[in-house]
Amino acid sequence: MPVNRTSKTKTAIVKSAMELFALHGYKGTSVRKIASKVGIRESALYNHFKNKEAIFLTVCSDIFTTPFAQKNIQDDAKKGKKFLAGFVVQYKLVSFDTKKEKLFRIMMIELLQDPVLRKNFLDESHHRNIALLSEAFFVMMQSGLIRSSDPMFMANEFLAPLFYYRLQVTLFRIDSEPTTALSTLFEKHVDFFWESIAIH
User: How many percent of the chain have pLDDT more than 70?
Assistant: First the structure.
């Protein structure tokens, strides 16, 4: 099968799975249902994914991993605050994406209940973002943009509020509360964090 066709099929599987997980939850979605929605045989789906868990983790990755994870950030990180602002913009866009809102809630439930999914999610999504940010902060230190510190700790300190803001967005929406004030927190976080680490 040609590479571009394989890639299109894989993308279609993830998109269909995302919709089905949002509608029926993890347990209510079968590989057969996903394959049927894509329009392929169930056996053909296994050419792209080992099992339903692998599909779910890919969907989780799509929700939690920023496009920065696909880049070589050595040069981008030298932009300092601009790099962090770009990271936060991508995180914010996903946080306010209403199409992924229900799926985010379902995903949180599944991760709390299933230790295997939880471990794999942490390995594939959370740790990947932490590794990316750690590398970026290390580059910034080497470039003389920020004070020397533990880049791993710095990455956790930077990412934790973003996750909390995202959770707040979800909680506010459940109760039909406005999220406008939350929107500005993402940018304010970058300003506040940069002021605390930058060499002036």
Answer: 92
C-alpha dist (Å) from residue 128 to 23, 149, 151, 159, 162: 28, 20, 14, 12, 15
Confidence of residue 69 (pLDDT cuts 50, 70, 90): low
Which amino acid is residue 133, in one-letter code? L
Cβ–Cβ under 8 Å, residues 183 and 89: no
Separation of CA 145 from chain center: 27
Report which secondary-structure segment, H or E, holds 66. Answer: none
- Scan for tokens 């976080």, then name that residue: 189
Cα separation, 116 vs 189, whole angstroms: 32
Q: E strand or H helix at 164, and its extent? A: helix 151-174
CATH architecture assigned to 61-197: Orthogonal Bundle (1.10)
Structure-model confidence comparison of residues 175 and 111, the more confident one: 175
- Considering the segment(s) 3-49 as one domain, its CATH architecture is Orthogonal Bundle (1.10)
Contact 186, 162 (CB under 8 A): yes
Tokens of 1: 């099968």
Residue type, 71: K
pLDDT in tens, 168-186: 998 898 899 999 999 999 9
